[in-house]
Amino acid sequence: MLKAYFNNFFWLFLTYFFAPWLYFLLARRSPKGEGGMNLKILVISTAKIGDIVCTTPVFREIKKKFPDSHLAALVTHQTHDLLKYNPHLDEIIIINDYSRFGLIKKLKEERYDWAFNLLLGSFNNIIAFWSLIPSRVATTHRKAGRITQLLSVFNNYRLEYKSHTWLMGHYLNLLKFIGVKDGSDEKELFWGEREEKKALDFLGRQNLSSEDLLVGISVTAGVGFKNWGDSRFALVSDRLTKELEAKIIFIGGSNDQPAIERVRDLMVGGSVNSAGCFALSELPALLKKLSLFISVDTGPLYIANAVQTPVINIGGCLDFREQSPTGKNSIILPQKNSDLYSFTDAMDSARKSWLANQLQGITPENVFNAARDFVLFRTK
User: Fold this and answer.
1) CB-based contacts of 49: which residues, under 8 Å, 6+ apart?
2) Which range of residues forms the domain containing residue 29?
3) I need a labelling partner for 347 at 20 to 30 A (CA). Which of 99, 134, 194, 320 fits?
4) Are 147 and 122 in contact (CB under 8 A)?
5) For the chain (length 380 residues), average pLDDT per consecutive 10?
6) CATH number (domain holding residue 328)
7) Nearest to 218, CA basis, from 149, 133, 278
8) 187 in a domain, yes or no?
């Protein structure tokens, strides 16, 4: 934590010290507006899986307005596979592959015209400035850290995110500076023939088909304070198997194996464990085959939602007015949002306690009834 603070302070000092020289270099570049030809546009989104899924409308709407543009996404090693087949992107840049100075050198050589920094972040706020990108758009927030606020001034277009409002709407509003308006917030993911074949082969080896009621369940969320409980997942899984004749497929990465096996050990009925079998780029193809997906608020839930698979969100989000699965086939069980806390806040003990109470207030009966109602509605 201390190292990160001093690193941010170093970049704060360096940026203010060299700002006159950088502005002089920027003045020698002619900015291209929305009518410019062959724009080079960079979208910076170094967030987690669910946030990347919610960024996909931005790529589509930019390309719709500027089909001849070169559009690049700057993302992390953990999420880049999700964008592998995205037809709107011309380039994916993985931030982890470069030192900070190396990244600036690469972006400077690329000579981008526009950069959009979607989320808060100290270094993210100045990537475009150091890379000499003439038109720099960034998100601000009144509760952002002091260093982040001091660095945000180096973006010549800024838009404040208002807590407790729709985050994808904010992403799309950032595009107004380049002339993109009234964009759709429909999420989308893509995959290839190899991924499609792998998903079908996997189901075939488990003697499963599209005729079955395939229910995917993710029992983890990457952070411990979003834990709903092994016994609760086991109870829901057994009821789905016994009363609805569902086929349960547990979804997760290799690191989720122990948690999944704990749940399976508590179950009476059978299930399939797919943890570690699918890379992130392959997961959308599998989730598309499911009849229903159940989990707390986590990345795979947003992937399932993006591929139009019905989802039940058990909880784990401070305010679902900010970000949540969308569409008529999305069921969000928490009936209460926090008016005090936002995703922009640091996750302290008070916020973790609020989430724990939210999760524990949702019973296995609530989840099963939601699943049963969906199945009955689907079969009508």
Assistant:
1) 78, 79, 82, 280, 298, 299, 300, 302, 303
2) 8-178
3) 99
4) yes
5) 82 97 92 74 95 97 96 97 97 97 97 96 96 97 91 97 94 97 95 98 96 96 82 98 97 94 97 96 98 95 97 89 91 84 80 86 96 78
6) 3.40.50.2000
7) 278
8) no
